[in-house]
Automatic annotation (TrEMBL):
<feature type="domain" description="3-hydroxyisobutyrate dehydrogenase-like NAD-binding">
    <location>
        <begin position="164"/>
        <end position="284"/>
    </location>
</feature>
<dbReference type="GO" id="GO:0046487">
    <property type="term" value="P:glyoxylate metabolic process"/>
</dbReference>
<dbReference type="InterPro" id="IPR008927">
    <property type="entry name" value="6-PGluconate_DH-like_C_sf"/>
</dbReference>
<keyword id="KW-0560">Oxidoreductase</keyword>
<dbReference type="Pfam" id="PF14833">
    <property type="entry name" value="NAD_binding_11"/>
</dbReference>
<feature type="domain" description="6-phosphogluconate dehydrogenase NADP-binding">
    <location>
        <begin position="2"/>
        <end position="161"/>
    </location>
</feature>
<feature type="active site">
    <location>
        <position position="170"/>
    </location>
</feature>
<dbReference type="InterPro" id="IPR029154">
    <property type="entry name" value="HIBADH-like_NADP-bd"/>
</dbReference>
<dbReference type="InterPro" id="IPR015815">
    <property type="entry name" value="HIBADH-related"/>
</dbReference>
<dbReference type="InterPro" id="IPR013328">
    <property type="entry name" value="6PGD_dom2"/>
</dbReference>
<keyword id="KW-0520">NAD</keyword>
<protein>
    <submittedName>
        <fullName>2-hydroxy-3-oxopropionate reductase</fullName>
        <ecNumber>1.1.1.60</ecNumber>
    </submittedName>
</protein>
<dbReference type="Pfam" id="PF03446">
    <property type="entry name" value="NAD_binding_2"/>
</dbReference>
<dbReference type="InterPro" id="IPR036291">
    <property type="entry name" value="NAD(P)-bd_dom_sf"/>
</dbReference>
<dbReference type="GO" id="GO:0008679">
    <property type="term" value="F:2-hydroxy-3-oxopropionate reductase activity"/>
</dbReference>
<dbReference type="GO" id="GO:0050661">
    <property type="term" value="F:NADP binding"/>
</dbReference>
<dbReference type="GO" id="GO:0051287">
    <property type="term" value="F:NAD binding"/>
</dbReference>
Length: 298
């Protein structure tokens, strides 16, 4: 199958690589990140515009940072929409606004093409290991058509419902992850300030009901100060903005999501937007006047 892949960045690069290793022909166009040389050397072709790769491909996959990026790539000058012909399928694996997703899908359908929203969870590690959780919104027959592609990139693949429902599930996922990161950060700041060894506290908690993947992975990051991004604060901040905007439209209160968003905003204001989202702990450390680790950054 010829697949156009737009957005071969931290997450997209290994995802596209899995498709290529399975024998699919990759067509690439640069978005923000430079085109990965390893994909090009393995046979991927580069084109100048999204329109060009779309015209050649059967399936078009997007893995982009935010809603405006997706809209521009789809409908801007030289965009995907200009290269569509009936029967193609557009798969958006970005994490964006569910309402905008449904609007985009309706415009793609006017060209006689299918649309799937399939945001992912699992971070860079999940992308590299083809172990992503993929949350899909699509008609059943469309989902079954592209499911073999998802199986090359992930392990937990679920059709949540119709178009847009995958994005709803991703927003829900990001609420849970953010609040878990905040809870782990509070716990480790508390433990350290109280004079206990936070590494030993984390080890003890991993054997009890407080155990979680966030405590395992991000708790270790907080202690070891390894904040190179698997998933950037500024992107999680964007996802919580989607959650809070959706909540306003639904007349719904998400109080802990709102307070956690403020901690992400404090990190961004301090210049930490490009750090891993586990670096949220630094906002709590500044409030406490105490760092989890003695060699912590300011």
């Amino acid at each position: 199958m010829k697949i156009a892949f737009i957005g071969a960045g931290i997450m997209g690069r290994p995802m596209a690589g899995h498709l290529q290793q399975a024998g699919h022909e990759l067509l690439l166009v640069q978005h923000r990140s430079p085109l990965p040389p390893e994909l090009l050397s393995a046979g991927a072709s580069a084109r100048a515009t999204a329109r060009e790769v779309t015209a050649e491909a059967e399936v078009i996959i997007l893995m982009l940072p935010d809603t405006p990026d997706v809209e521009t790539v789809l409908f801007g000058t030289g965009g995907v929409a200009e290269g569509l012909t009936p029967g193609k399928c557009v798969i958006d694996m970005s994490s964006i606004d569910p309402i905008a997703t449904r609007r985009f899908a309706a415009r793609i359908a006017e060209a006689g093409c299918d649309y799937v929203d399939a945001p992912v969870s699992g971070g860079e590690v999940g992308a590299r290991n083809a172990a992503l959780t993929i949350m899909c919104g699509a008609e059943p027959h469309v989902f079954e058509r592209v499911r073999p592609l998802f199986e090359l990139m992930g392990k937990n693949i679920t059709r949540v419902g119709g178009v847009g429902d995958g994005q709803v599930a991703k927003v829900a996922n990001q609420i849970i992850v953010a609040l878990n990161i905040e809870a782990v950060a509070e716990a480790l700041v508390f433990a350290s300030k109280a004079g206990a060894d936070p590494a030993r506290v984390r080890e003890a908690l991993m054997g009890g009901f407080a155990a979680s993947r966030v405590l395992e992975v991000h708790g270790e990051r907080m202690i070891k100060r390894t904040f190179d991004p698997g998933f950037r604060i500024e992107l999680h901040q964007k996802d919580l903005s989607l959650a809070l905007a959706g909540a306003r439209s639904l007349g719904l209160a998400l109080p802990n999501t709102a307070s956690t968003q403020q901690l992400f905003s404090a990190c961004v204001a301090a210049g930490g937007g490009a750090k891993d989202h586990s670096a949220m702990v630094q906002a709590l450390e500044r409030l406490a006047g105490h760092a989890v680790a003695s060699d912590a950054e300011g």
